[in-house]
Amino acid sequence: MTTEQQLQQLEQRIEELVSISARLRRENQAMQVREHKLMEERADLLKKNDAAKSKVEAIISRLKSLEQEP
User: How does 13-38 read in b/e, with b if 16+ C-beta sit within 10 Å?
Assistant: First the structure.
């Protein structure tokens, strides 16, 4: 294999690595965006869960007070 052929192979491999690196960078950015959205969704669901829990506790408390009335 000549030096010219070796250089061509090396250049081709470098181009492949640059392409892979760019693809991985895009995938990483997309995953970060998705993670951020999922974290926001989780926080929203936790708030809703807490609100529902408070409502249920209030209903239970009212029912208990109604049971105690003559």
Answer: eeeeeeeeeeeeeeeeeeeeeeeeee
In the numeric block, the tokens 């869960």 are attached to 49
In whole angstroms, give the CA distance from residue 52 to residue 39.
20
What's the alpha-carbon Rg for the chain, to the nearest Å?
30
Dump pLDDT digits (tens) for 57-66: 999 999 999 8
Angstrom distance (rounded) from CA 52 to CA 15: 55
Residues 2 and 51: their CA atoms lie apart, in Å, by 73
Write down the pTM of the prediction. Answer: 0.69
